Amino acid sequence: MSDDTLVVWDESLLDYDMGEHPLDPVRVELTVALARELGVLDRPGVRLIRPEPADDATLTRVHLPDYLAAVRTAPRDPLFAGYGLGTSDNPVFDGMHESSALIAGATVAAAEAVWRGEARRAVNVAGGLHHAMPDRAAGFCVYNDPAVAIARLLDLGAERVAYVDVDVHHGDGVQEVFYHDPRVLTVSLHETPLALFPGTGFPDETGGPGAQGSAVNVPLPPGTDDAGWQRAFHAIVPSVLRAFRPQILLTQCGADGHRLDPLADLHLSVDGQRATYLTLRALADELCDGRWVATGGGGYALVEVVPRAWTHLLAVATGDPLDPATLTPPDWRALAAHRLPGRDVPLRMTDDVDPSHQPWQPTGEPNSVDRAVAATRKAVFPLLGLDPYDPRD
């Protein structure tokens, strides 16, 4: 296996552009620019490749043919309606099929390279469109690139694929596609569906018949900070991954759990997100011989958060993590100020938050995070042969 890290990138990935919309591709542009300015993409062993669009045969492993036809047709038909398209969440835009297929192709290329041993890790920061369903667009997502990549891995012979989603929204589309497939473990930590789109991701969603225990959901209360989030993550994710024994790890690394994100109500920091990426890499090293495919996802603090979070992700995937005290380069600050005038451009790669946490314990007076942890452990741990009350599991 190569020790290289593959970064799938081309400026054409910015064509996934819904216009006046929260999902602004400038966040991806600024991420890649910041990573370049800090030398992350020039490290030894880092290879950049241009993606190719996923073809229909690849896309229809997840999406229905009539939905693909609708995505192609909608931009040419001013009266088009249906399939979740033409809504405020999912407006129709020119080149919608082509740009969506390119993002899917980028994540598929990342997964294929890691599975075949051509790279140990791979990243597509433009990916992570985890809400798209087989028959419709949802939550800013047209084609579900993580699900398409997982389906490709199964076709290549993978028997145990783990998907961990740390976006603030439930990874509902990926869960839906593989809910009845015991070969795929989906794990999602998110703000409670009682408060946030898409309204799914409760602890009792644990997998369909024949695949019980293959879905793990950790819904967290609004206001959860780094210490609570890390406490929940470490109380659930390492245990279920170790029980499942994945051959490869895919992660959706949405940055919208940050306290500055305008669309949600968790209170994470860039420092906490960086700590999560380090843990995910360590779990991939422990369980999958390092095989890790990472995508972006949500994140709507376009200057203040996303570029820093995903540059940390790229640094963790490509080698040494960046020192949180690192200054953002002046040229990048100028670019960010030019692209989005009037926004607060961060001066450093840190929020000056210590993301350490106290490990979860089943005793004592539980807070709202501990109750969420206990609910998930009770629902899914016995299905995986784990003890929900033993903190060692």
TrEMBL record:
Pathway: Ketone degradation; acetoin degradation
SUPFAM superfamilies xrefs: Arginase/deacetylase (SSF52768)
Keyword Iron-sulfur: no
The keyword 4Fe-4S is annotated on this UniProt entry: no
Pfam families per the UniProt record, alphabetical: Hist_deacetyl
InterPro entries for this protein: AcuC, HDACs, His_deacetylse_dom, His_deacetylse_dom_sf, Ureohydrolase_dom_sf
Keywords: Acetoin catabolism
Histone deacetylase domain ranges (all copies): 21-315
Protein family per UniProt: Belongs to the histone deacetylase family.
Protein name listed in UniProt: Acetoin utilization protein AcuC
Organism: Micromonospora antibiotica
